[in-house]
Design brief:
Length: 312
């Protein structure tokens, strides 16, 4: 039975449901929703998403932080994060499955011109709109990690041409891979549907911008399921309005919830979902948390750790 308490620092999540899942694996673990000066020393594990900057530094016996999602930008935003404390992120099949569904759906949506059909339907207009077969459509995935590669596997079942861009070289069957900023332009030049699945870091912030869009072929579409900070929203609207891009699917935004005043909401060529592409599955996540706590207890290294020098 592990020593110490786990701080569940997710104020807007159903504490009881998540804790119930954790108790299936660690029935006696002391789980708390808050701490004060006297009890800070009890906390050895923390589940977090966007912790108050400086909060984690107040926990003198902290052994590990668990990010509630795959992306850790909300935690890395705390510049006082105590970097000697490992940070684990969610890596699991349920998240990859959900993200693959989102990417396949939105790829088909733009490839098969569903937005054009929806516009015709609003005017009761019957018109047959051709679309190329999938083997003639090039889908480029920016960020070819756990989720990007899972999405590529799902898309390959439909025979799309696949391209992947990452920081380091990759060798994946059936995918033309590119890496580093030196190969970004070549990657974009051959991408008809651009899917962003990058982590948000200082290097990737604002990467979906005017220059990136200009490097895409005329008529390309953009799908951003990563973070709102990747996208320069005004540049996207401008590229669509001047007819260079056909449209975009956006799941994530600079400000969430997306303000009612945002022009993105009413744009006829932008499809919006509310940061819902892939939710962390509570049961699966709590199993990962429990397994990691048990590994630490047995003196084994934790898995799925963030590399602080890369920021993801
Ligand atoms: P991951 O496994 O860490 O993959 C990240 C990929 O991005 C890697 O291929 C990495 O390259 C590449 N990359 C990072 N920085 C780069 C740079 N500067 N230049 C080129 N490539 C770079 O992450 P993941 O698990 O796939 O998750 C990706 C992101 O999806 C998360 O960070 C999160 O923001 C987002 N997400 C969104 C939702 C949602 O519901 N919308 C749900 C889950 C996750 P290397 O492989 O060479 O390191
Ligand atoms: C969700 O956005 C995640 O990062 O898992």
């Amino acid at each position: 039975m592990p020593q110490g308490a786990l701080l569940f620092d997710l104020p807007n999540f159903p504490h009881d449901t998540w804790t119930t899942h954790l108790r299936r694996f660690l029935p006696d673990l002391d789980v708390r929703a808050s701490f004060d000066e006297a009890t800070a020393k009890d906390i050895m594990y923390c589940v977090a998403w966007k912790p108050q900057p400086g909060m984690l530094r107040k926990l003198p016996n902290l052994k590990i932080v668990f990010s509630m999602g795959a992306g850790v930008d909300g935690i890395m935003a705390d510049t006082t994060y105590p970097r000697h404390i490992p940070l684990a992120r969610v890596v699991d099949d349920t998240l990859a499955q959900a993200m693959s569904e989102y990417v396949v759906f939105n790829t088909l949506y733009w490839h098969r011109r569903m937005n054009d059909f929806a516009a015709l339907q609003r005017e009761s207009k019957w018109r047959q709109l051709p679309a190329p077969r999938a083997p003639f459509v090039r889908v480029g995935i920016l960020g070819f990690g756990v989720l990007g590669q899972a999405a590529a596997r799902a898309l390959s079942a439909l025979n799309y041409q696949l391209l992947g861009w990452s920081a380091t070289p990759k060798n994946v069957d059936g995918v033309r891979t590119f890496h580093g900023s030196g190969q970004l332009h070549a990657f974009l030049g051959e991408t008809d549907i651009l899917v962003c699945l990058l982590p948000l870091t200082p290097d990737t912030r604002g990467i979906l911008n005017e220059k990136t869009f200009a490097a895409l072929p005329n008529g390309a579409c953009v799908i951003n399921a990563a973070r709102g900070g990747h996208l320069v929203e005004g540049d996207l609207i401008a590229a669509i309005d001047r007819g260079h891009l056909r449209g975009a699917s956006l799941d994530v935004f600079n400000t969430e919830p997306l303000p009612a005043t945002s022009p993105l909401w009413s744009h006829p060529k932008i499809v919006i979902t509310s940061h819902s592409a892939a939710f962390t599955d509570p049961a699966s996540f709590m199993r990962q948390v429990a397994t990691t706590i048990q590994r630490i207890d047995q003196g084994l290294p934790p898995e799925n750790l963030v590399d602080f020098t890369r920021g993801y």
